[in-house]
Amino acid sequence: MKKVIYLRSNPIDPDPRVEKEVRALSKAGFDVTILAWDRDADKGNKGQLISEKKQIPIYYFSLKSNFGGGIKNIIKLARFQFYLLKKLLSLRNHYDIIHAADFDTVIPAYFMKVLYKKKLVYDIFDFYVDAFSVPKILIKPIKKIDLGIINRADAVILATENRLKQIMGSNPKFIEYIHNTPEVKTELTLSTLPKNRESITLGYVGVLQPGRLLEEILNVASRNPKIKITLAGFGPLEESIKEKSLKYENIVFLGKVDYSESLKINAESDIMFATYDPTIPNHAYSSPNKLYEAMLLSKPLIVCNGTGIDELINTEKIGFTIDYSEKSFENLLETILQDHHDLECMAKKSYALYQQRFSWSVMENRLIEMYKRL
After folding, report:
1. What pTM does this model have?
2. How many Å apart are CA 251 and CA 243, to the nearest integer?
3. What is the rounded CA–CA span in Å between residue 60 and residue 37?
């Protein structure tokens, strides 16, 4: 039995992509251990992730740190790197493959590959210099290191095919594409918006941070009681969102929720949105969970022009594209409130597309076949 150690710089509480991949590997017979960063420092040193009847151990690095802190967290990030290296060294006889999620875990993993010939799977959730606030002076050296590790990893995972453009200049040994599609095994009832409905419900579960039009959308809802929005998650905007939810009855904030609850929130909405700022380089290659969740749940999706997924939305006619602005979002919702006739067709197309091309069973098979090559 091959043994895998999975590295992630958050507490996995929740982290749907990590949980799906880990459970898929465990189900396929791999012995998996997780190293994670407990940024709330309230979990102790060890926890577990349940996969069917197995308990997958999680070792925590406990140090308080804000999400989205950027360069302010550099000292804490360095301490996390030393923790990973120390733990990887102490556990070196208990794993064969290191699965490193993103650049902030891959350098210690690469040292272990060089020193102890461990296999390295580099899973790029987000390309670091495009996704995070890296000082200009560090962009070139970090990118050079990143591309070098991509070249030397035994396998590289990207979240979508269009992200191959992001790692131009590299020459990976092997690439697999694992989309951020939900892991749901039961059939879900199609739910669509009836014509001439007097209100519309929106759902959002995810990281609550600037660059996602969240504050602007809440402003729209605050002006129009016909627009109801339910949000859940965590991040820098958490407190301001909580304040608005106390002030306006049509804004509901549920805090941090598990994945099954997040799907329920979205299933009960009429429309979902994944409205990212296209001026942020990484958003041009976005492949958010919400895209695939909307397909699975038969929900039209609102996205912004120039964010990587707008082309799919327009080509397949499974949602709406808008400019990244409060006014553009508001104008769209006013139009939808007046006329819902396209929504049912969008919902059916969206679900069919999920089944044909993006179901988790397709992605799970890709992951396991890739691992068998190692």
Report:
1. 0.79
2. 10
3. 6
305 phi, psi to nearest 5 deg: -60, 140
pLDDT tens digits along 85-140: 999 999 999 999 999 999 999 999 999 999 999 999 999 998 988 877 788 898 89
How far is residue 122's CA from residue 102's CA, in Å, rounded to a whole number? 7
Output the six-digit token pair for 23: 């459970």
pLDDT above 80 (res 68): no
Q: Which two tokens stand for residue 253?
A: 């904030």
> In the 3-class helix/strand/coil scheme, how is the chain assigned residue by residue?
CCEEEEEECCCCCCCHHHHHHHHHHHHCCCEEEEEEEECCCCCCCEEEEEECCEEEEEEEEECCCCCCCHHHHHHHHHHHHHHHHHHHHHCHHHCCEEEEECHHHHHHHHHHHHHHCCEEEEEECCCHHHHCCCCHHHHHHHHHHHHHHHHHCCEEEECCHHHHHHHECECCCCEEECCCCCCCCCCCCCCCCCCCCCCEEEEEEEECCCCCCHHHHHHHHHHCCCEEEEEEEECCCHHHHHHHHHHCCCEEECCCCCHHHHHHHHHCCCEEEECCCCCCHHHHHCCCHHHHHHHHCCCCEEEECCCCCHHHHHHHCCEEEECCCHHHHHHHHHHHHHCCCCHHHHHHHHHHHHHHHHCHHHHHHHHHHHHHHC
